[in-house]
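May I ask for a sample protein chain and its fold as tokens?
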Amino acid sequence: MRILAVSDVECPAFWDHFVRGRLDGYDLILSCGDLKAQYLSFLVTMSHARLLYVHGNHDVGYATKPPEGCENIDGQLVIYNGVRILGLGGCLWYHEGPHQYTERQMQRRIAKLRFAIRRAGGVDIVATHAPPRGLGDMDDPAHRGFEAFCGLIDKYHPSLFLHGHTHLSYGTGIEREQMSGETRVINVSERFSLDVPEGNCPAAKKDRLIYVTRRPREPVSSDGPNFDPGSLFRF
């Protein structure tokens, strides 16, 4: 399965200088936040791919005008083509505003997903906005990563951890890819292409998106979505 991951910066090749057919070949688009709603709607319209997204800390407008034709997986576990994808948007709290969380709040969000992860037999891809602490983050309050994400990686060992938030243009020391144990941590700022084997999660059907957790109510508050992790859709 070919995946296009995007975040933070609208890619000129897909936006200002788009050529029809440029998005052909992608099966799934994952947005890790802080992109214009119109941009995401354009990507899903001009491709044959499904588009799943999480919120960035600047995606305030999504509450009233979300990206059309796209699906919000923030605070949820979904399965697509047998691949288990966990979405956790937002960044570490640094001033008042939505989609910002303290470490304790993010730990609670992850804890609410434990039963769903166990029910699905694990997780393959984690899509977040902020990076894990010490893996592609920065030291200023606005761009520090979450310690909670390090614990998530250590506990569940996803194959891929995709994030944005720290633009590659912020400095020469920002790495695009790092490894944390068996997990490949990738900063997908602007765009990044991936080839991922289709999963073998039981009962997962090709081209069908399965929501393992109940969809949260919009808008998402700064304290995380309210959903019952024990209320599952049947496979």
